[in-house]
Write a structure and sequence with these properties.
The structure is a homotetramer.
Chain A (H helix, E strand, L loop, with lengths): L4 E6 L3 H11 L4 E8 L4 H8 L4 E3 L5 H6 L6 E2 H5 L4 E4 L5 H12 L2 E4 L10 E3 L1 H4 L8 E4 L2 H17 L1 E11 L15 E2 L7 H5 L8 E8 L5 E9 L6 H10 L3 E4 L8 H11 L9 E11 L2 E8 L6 H12 L5 H12 L7
Parallel strand pairs in A: 1-2, 1-5, 2-3, 3-4, 5-6, 6-8, 7-8, 9-11, 13-14
Antiparallel strand pairs in A: 9-12, 10-11, 12-15, 14-15
Helix pairs in contact in A: 1-11, 11-12
């Protein structure tokens, strides 16, 4: 049996704590430690979970001692013990960390808040799995880009995509980001088309895509409003529904489930019982999908906090195991994470 | 000098109170009375404004007496004194009122919450002014449709519209509708494409248009995300900005004005000082408009409470004065309403 | 070993689905079935969890068949098989169900949305456990009353309560109740003092208490602002903190945990991993508690969806097992539910 | 006739733009100019209103020139022309400006965001008008403190106040502050009792008062939940209602007006037509007030943006006209501002 990949998670916030849990659930990976810059209820959760805690940035050891949180060393100590680090530090800090990782001689995965040039390849498991094979620095694209890339992967493989238009209705803050607004209002993103389209092209370089975005006062999920012109369209909407139901990392809701929008999606997620009540799949509604000739309209909801978690796991595997293919890795990841397939 | 058109407003809520104020400001119209079904701070406002108050529906005279609100009669009494009634009752009630208006032999204007077959014509001042000439029953299209129709009118006249796509990010409730949610979440509208496209075609029957919609937790304004394929595109974005600045009922914000989204638009409106701090114009941002070849992307914000008010006034004039044309009526309406043109 | 108590849950919504899970975790209880009036993602969750599904109200069997949800019968069939039913139907429906339960000869627990006269006793585990001994109909008080009663129990036992004042800042809707507002605004509850004080007195008849309430646009938790005049006050705030830390069903957050308000409390709960990311304890902050002579000021946050769940379990046990006492039942319930005690 | 008081307003944001309008409406004052640090729609409003615009802080003249906004000089130039400056700069900046004002030899009014030691006296018109007589530096207390002080003034004068308790349910951001949260959640203010009580005592030094506060996701108004122990209580609630109706700067809503909460208060305000749809009065509800023996419970809503505006005007008058008394100044201010008294 091959040795497990030894993994560090640098930053134990919204993304990092989920990646840590996900790594800990994989039989071919071992979580060596996580980092924190200050004590908090999240730092305590790491300790309670048995994840060795290391200090990063300007963290003060005395603060952790006062909080009764045992510390195993600093990030530099952690990096000496691992094969790979998942950088889950705040946007733009990842780039600054790259030198640290390079100096330590470890592979590294960055998140979508970094620019694509931070890494050798941008990555999405369904989209371009093999692009990460053997790479030392890989970037998992952002939540919105991941959601789009998955849908592109499914539709382009089956019917070809002539052109993709999407309006991204973005949640303004994560649930615990209580300092961010707006409380009441809509903020257009004054970049036309938005950067999300080009970001999808880091995965699908040939894709014709144009995206726009607005920010709205909710914390739960983004919603994408998609209009896709297909090259070889199927007979009807039902074929597209069937394809999404068959694809990994999609959850299709039927009308009788009475899921009216993102509040009910998250309620479903709470009842399913994954950690943090996460919804790692693209959410599609039967009633919210319509094929009209070659024109496909559909909504998808994207859980910004968790959708990239399985992608980080697949990226670790693709980078460190040149013989694994996308299908096998995705299946292994999803089984370990408890991602149930939608009922047929 | 011609006699003034004698106007009743049936329903003195969000739309009705604004129409009443707007009629009262026109030199060629006379507000004869408004109706209410129960006493409230709004009923008191009508009395304080000197608008004769009539009862409608199951209104109880004793309730008004107890509140100290003088009543001039019932809706049936009011209809006997007028040439035209603007129906501003809740959605679907308008249709039920049609028989009442027919029996009274008065002209009537309905709002966009009614289906188009309630009237002989659907109306938008910039779009199809003359369609209301001489008609007895006219329907002013809804806030979203009005916003779209105005933009279609401007762009199609100058450059031709090959195809129009719009995602409507809709406010979930008006500011005082405190019982309506959602408080946190996004609700897709499960009708693809949405009904707004066909509704725009009641004004522009030949237009190729597809719309989609989501509902978000805000009370201020809708935001439309538009992608328009122009037939004979101008040289650049600046030409389109110039066209919107030159058009009536558009307000274009420049970057230096620091209007980031709908919260700042409404703050601007509060400072301008129209009644109810209304924003009756389509709001466009210079920074939120981009022409890329023949593809025009732009955001527009639509104040759902007030955008149809000048249209109701123009509809009254078009129906009752066969010699007036769109330009003259719009100019007269806007001057009376204090709609300042954007600075050049 | 005594036979397990056979339990039905009538209504599988916000409260019912949690009670069902909680009953299923108790070694001395057996969940016989739950009811639903229409198919939904929640009905499917019951089926997936292996809870036999029965129809209630005007549920149509054909709807469930179409959704592929197997049905075991109607509520009447279910009641024949159980010792006790937990009524978790919508407010006021519980009272209507009482006749059904009486006819079936089963014990019943009602929720706090019903008036107190629906049952022989109102119940709170820390407050008046023994009041439920041997009773056939018991009412578990509402979420706000439960939160208050627990705090009263702790403080009155140790130091005596001269008078209690509380302002309840109430969440307007549960997370998935997407039709309820307000979206932006504060609604005072025009009942002074509010009904919560008298409801606490159903548990502590002698308590001097006055409460007031406002409704605010959030879905997460209520917050109580308490001012308590103690009879025999301790030396300082630290003593009160110690008492809350030592009490069951309280979670005290320390300043270093950086829990600023209800968003962070729920983030903590998501990381803890109880079903539905529930927070069944009263939440108290060290930094949000101050003893000034005999005057104690403190905030507590109350998770409206889950706080009554352990109380329902204790009520079942108290009603069916006359020999069990409060301490033993609470400890057994909490162990089964995974309610960790706060770190010392 | 006495010379008009020459007034500058330093800062033309939420408070400053309102003070400027209010000064311009007073027959005994003259607005000499306002300041801005960057061009914006608000700067343009000042220009459109004919208010000479001066630069403050690090404002760049070129930015204003590019925006087409004429500038009359810098704050230092403005101060040379005035008797008094109203400082409406952001919190804590006012203190830094004090030296500037002292050097210029002008009187100055500061806002409640500054600490009380910035000035010789803290001020509320109903509470301690004469404390500002002849002073050079005066501080108008904050919106919440102003709302409390007005109510204290009315109740203590008539019936004596034994003790005052208030929970302040605070709006989290002003309508156009789109960067501030929380979007969903309640944040307790971890200061017990809160600073508002001591701040009220800068007006009423002998008052026994304890306040607490929470922050909630709304932009419209604060709501105070008051419990007042009166010394010589009247016979019933109606007497208190009558007193509030008779007091200046109070608006009492009757049940038939159907004003359920702050959304409807602001809708009333929009219909009344003061600039910015302001609500400068304390808002009290008949249905939200209850006298129980000596214990008075009542809600009041406070419009954080505008409630201090008439107080700033009165402070100007008190500081510069030693012969004016509170009643005369308040009446003059309110008449000029269009503050209608509530119907009897």
């Amino acid at each position: 049996m091959a040795a497990k990949v030894r993994v560090a998670v640098n930053g134990y916030g919204t993304i990092g704590k989920r990646v840590a849990d996900a790594v800990a659930r994989q039989s071919d990976m071992e979580l060596i430690g996580v980092t924190k810059t200050r004590p908090s209820f999240e730092a305590r959760r790491a300790v309670d979970a048995g994840y060795p805690l290391y200090l990063a940035g300007d963290a003060a050891p005395a603060d952790f001692a006062a909080a009764g949180l045992p510390v195993a060393g600093r990030i530099e100590d952690l990096l000496k013990q691992v094969d790979l680090v998942v950088d889950a530090s705040p946007d733009k800090v990842g780039k600054a960390n790259a030198d640290l990782y390079r100096a330590a001689g470890v592979r590294a995965i960055f998140q979508g808040g970094e620019k694509s040039d931070v890494a050798e390849a941008s990555f999405n498991a369904l989209g371009n799995f093999s692009a990460a094979h053997g790479k030392r620095f890989v970037r998992v694209v952002s939540c919105n880009t991941t959601g789009l890339a998955r849908a592109v992967a499914v539709l382009s493989a089956k019917w070809g995509v002539e052109h993709w238009e999407a309006t991204l209705v973005r949640r303004a803050a994560d649930p615990a980001e209580s300092k961010r607004g707006p409380i009441n209002g809509i903020l257009p993103t004054f970049q036309l088309p938005s950067h999300h389209g080009p970001d999808v092209r880091t995965i699908f370089p040939e894709l014709s895509i144009a995206t726009t975005a607005v920010v709205v006062p909710t914390t739960l999920m983004h919603v994408h409003v998609n209009h896709v012109r297909l090259r070889r369209p199927p007979a009807g909407s039902a074929d597209v529904i069937t394809a999404f139901r068959a694809a990994p990392r999609f959850r299709v809701f039927a009308p009788w489930e009475h899921v009216d929008g993102t509040p009910q999606v998250m309620e479903f997620a709470r009842g399913r019982g994954l950690p943090f009540n996460d919804m790692m799949e693209n959410v599609v509604w039967e009633a919210g999908l319509k094929l009209d000739g070659a024109d496909l309209y559909f909504f998808q909801a994207i859980h910004q906090e968790s959708i990239v978690i399985p992608e980080n796991i697949d990226a670790i595997r693709a980078m460190t195991n040149p013989s694994v293919d996308a299908g096998a890795s995705i299946a292994q990841t999803d089984r370990a994470l408890g991602l149930a397939r939608a009922p047929a």
